[in-house]
Amino acid sequence: MKYSAFSLLRNGFDRDSRWPSILPSVTPKDRYDIIIVGGGAHGLACAHYLARNHDITDVLVLDSAWIGGGNTGRNTAIVRSDYLLEASFKLKNFSLELWKSLSQDLNYNVMYSPRGYIDLAHSDGELEHFMCRANAMCLSGARAEILSPQQIESLEPSINLHTKSRFPVSGGLFQPDGGVVRHDAVAWGFARSAGRAGIDIVQNCGVSGFGVRNRRINWVQTVRGKIHCDKVLITAAGASSELARLAGFELPVEMINVQAFVSEPVKPVLDKVINYNAGLAYISQTGKGELVMGGATDGYPSFARRGSFARIEDTLVRALQIFPFLSNLRLMRHWSGTADIPMDGNAIVGKSPLENMYLNCGWGYAGFKATPAVGWTMAELLATDRLPDLLAPFALDRFKSGALIDDSGIGPYPWLH
After folding, report:
1. 70 and 237 Cβ atoms separated by less than 8 Å
2. Is residue 413 within 8 Å of 297, Cβ to Cβ?
3. What is the pLDDT of residues 232-243, one digit of tens each?
């Protein structure tokens, strides 16, 4: 549907706007083949790929609030795959390849911007570790470069690496294909595609229980009543542990607040995504000119989704060391999400202790960047009941076998060690 400039203005001021709805209003049926609990990017991506790759549409997606209103809408939308361990790299790099064509796949602009991601090293030892990561990435077919401080300054003229800082910069790891994606566009692009395929998506419909018999889920109790199903996927980030308890088992995860904040908008000053790796402060600039910043977790368990001034100060101290001009800007707003993090800092994906319940949780900071790959592989698991090779290392039973995936030093989890 096309709109003239006048009609756009009229709809903007009209309370009874005639904008077409992306999602149809649906009343849940009594039974579905698959129920997906969680209407964030991962759950919606799984629904999209169930329809697209496996022609499965008897699916219900439930969200306790609104589509993309959880961690999908509470992150800094960075995508990258600069991981050393094979399991982490392969899944994230598959995701990065899917990001490149996702707008065409969905016929919806998700605003993937491959502006490049630079991870700063603060010692010769850390730079040597970055070299190992870069070599491993290149051997696996990804692009990665090691940059000197002079090369970093040539790519980002606004950066200042000459201050007498506590953590001087020795160089950096540059992934040209890393960048940012518009998070709400991702959620609604997947939602529109799934809805058009015939999948039911119901917002403001929380789950309060599961009907378990003989280690199988028979039905899901919601605010709209009891809904029967053959399979259930829990993909609800910060609510994952509570949903697991409702199903009768415990997950080895903790819930930690993660904050981000934005400055007032300014003219283009920052092209790449920069991560100050010592203690963590990462920064990028949006198309509107805002500087988006984030840091490490708050460091203590919480479901509150409330930020702390201590973490804001801690992050800004580091950001100001490399971008002194930030001292002239005002912070406009900040927000917090609830990250579910296991002991090794990596996701739990695959089968649960119940026969027909599946898990996608524990992503912590890394969930958004993995969105399309998780959706693709989880759809394959739900359709075939076979765990894809990309997901096998992330299975729940690794905590019994001791085969943990410890990517320490590549994510914001210093408190884990």
Report:
1. yes
2. yes
3. 999 999 899 999
Homologous superfamily assigned to 28-74+184-252+344-416: FAD/NAD(P)-binding domain (3.50.50.60)
Distance (Å, rounded) from C-alpha 228 to C-alpha 208? 14
CATH of domain 110-178+255-341: 3.30.9.10
Could you report the per-residue pLDDT of 346-402, keeping only the tens digit for each?
999 999 999 999 999 999 888 999 999 999 999 999 999 999 999 999 999 999 999
CA 57, CA 393: separation in Å to the nearest integer?
28
The CA distance from 369 to 183, in Å, is: 10
Pinpoint the residues of the chain covered by CATH 3.50.50.60.
28-74+184-252+344-416
pLDDT in tens, 54-77: 999 999 999 999 999 888 988 899
